[in-house]
Amino acid sequence: MTRPGVAVAILLFALGCKKPVQPGDPLSGLFEQQLDRFARGKIVFDSVFTPATGLGPLFNSVACGECHEKPAGGRGDEVEVHATAFRGGVCDALVQEGGPVIQRHAIPALKQALGIDSEPFPPSATARALRTSPVVFGRGLLDFVPDSVILAYADPDDKDHDGVRGRPNRFVDGRMGRFGRKAFVPTLRESNAGAFVTEMGVTDPAQPTEENIGGKPIPAGVDAVAEPDGRLCPLPRAADAPEGGSGRTARPPGLLTDRVRRLPPPHAAHWAPGNARFAQSRVRRLHRPVAP
Fold this sequence. Notes:
Blueprint: H1 3-14, H2 32-46, E1 58-59, H3 64-67, E2 68-70, E3 75-76, E4 79-87, E5 90-92, E6 101-102, E7 105-106, H4 108-114, E8 127-132, H5 147-152, H6 188-200, H7 252-260, H8 268-280
Antiparallel strand pairs: 1-7, 2-3, 4-5, 4-6, 4-8
């Protein structure tokens, strides 16, 4: 580098010039402990589960990163199968028949026991749908949006006459929903724990029960790992863990939550083309590009 080039580089450094945040980078300004948990969450994100570490009996993927891999572990690119039944104007998720997510793979023990390679599609379903795994960049920031902001956007009677009616969804206990199908799940931690079970069959104290097999219980001897089986995940050691200790200070969904919660939205250069299309489409009536 020439002397003028060195001078410019030093000047930019002195002015605190920062490079744009790249996909997969953490939010700026995190404390050391937060960065440590962010890094450990990445290890959980990339961990490949097996039946010995809790995978299955039914599953869609063997790792979080298998469904959210582009770019740098964030954008969803896998498609899952959903089942539902419309009865009397109400959408039935068919939970008692294995819905709404129909897992596409089975571990060898389940295949041997029942002779199936995937979960049976519910016979009472009236509709089948395909759903792409969601983007996780910036998604965790919804955890910090107050209920009052979400409620301020509610317009169940179309008072602004834009042709759109909407109201916030609520969880079974009345809490405001933010994540998952129809924004039903209140917190990112609960959403991640649910994804571990639904997509990989890995249970956790927050979600300690396996899903059924097309509405029927898991055959005896198929799932050899006691619940919750997520404890068998080889968790990364905390940077401040004492020597000789396990360093296991968090469950897999907890560490994953610490990562996703601190993934910023992509840099403007990544979403500029989509932003232009968003502004020109009717979709802008249904979704807010920013929150106050």
